[in-house]
Amino acid sequence: MTKTDCHADFSPMDLRKRMRTQRRSLSQAKRYQSAFLAARFLYQLIPLLPKNANIGVYLDGFGELPTFAIAKFCQKLGYQAYLPITTPNKPLKFAPIMGSISKTPLKKHRLGMYEPVSRLTLSANHMDAIICPLVAVDLEGVRLGMGGGYYDRTFAKTKNCLKIAWCYEFQVVDQLPKQPWDMSVDLIITDQRLIRLK
């Protein structure tokens, strides 16, 4: 899928299916290579973040661009990385990664992803940046998620939090339809570039 033929002939449901299929078709080696390439752009975030920043990051598990490099970046720069905890129809809460993801107690959520087992949680308002997954994102920052609305509800409750899309380059499309509840991202980081939208 190229940006010239992106979503024009596809409903959001069709686009989700097509993008998810394309993500899942990538080999593990290709996913990891793409994550290493995307990690180069993380250092451009340093001027935008306070010292000891709190950064929310997701655990990839459905073919998304892997996030291991973000956790390593946070550890290297002295930032505290957090993982999201979902509650139906509510904004996300965030629990700290305990040193490394492998040392952080996790449980499998009913939706299939892993999330922390922790009572030490913060609201999104305590995050300086939230790096989110997506199915597609356009050049205005409108993101198409999995349909649960977790990140839209969460971003609606934030004030000064930097909202960052983390994805493969092929997930960036020219334009997506925007619904009244959609919350746009401020930055897009792919394996090929960083796009600053605001």
UniProtKB/TrEMBL annotation:
Molecular-function GO term, any one: 5-formyltetrahydrofolate cyclo-ligase activity
Cofactor entry: Mg(2+)
Keyword Phosphoprotein: no
Pfam families the record matches: 5-FTHF_cyc-lig
EC code(s) of this entry: 6.3.3.2
SUPFAM superfamilies the UniProt entry points to: NagB/RpiA/CoA transferase-like
Keywords: ATP-binding, Ligase, Magnesium, Metal-binding, Nucleotide-binding
InterPro entries noted in UniProt: FTHF_cligase, FTHF_cligase-like_sf, NagB/RpiA_transferase-like
Source domain of life: Bacteria
The reaction(s) this protein catalyses: (6S)-5-formyl-5,6,7,8-tetrahydrofolate + ATP = (6R)-5,10-methenyltetrahydrofolate + ADP + phosphate
Record flagged with keyword Cell cycle: no
Protein family: Belongs to the 5-formyltetrahydrofolate cyclo-ligase family.
Name this protein carries in UniProt: 5-formyltetrahydrofolate cyclo-ligase
Organism per entry: Moraxella canis
Higher taxonomy: Bacteria, Pseudomonadati, Pseudomonadota, Gammaproteobacteria, Moraxellales
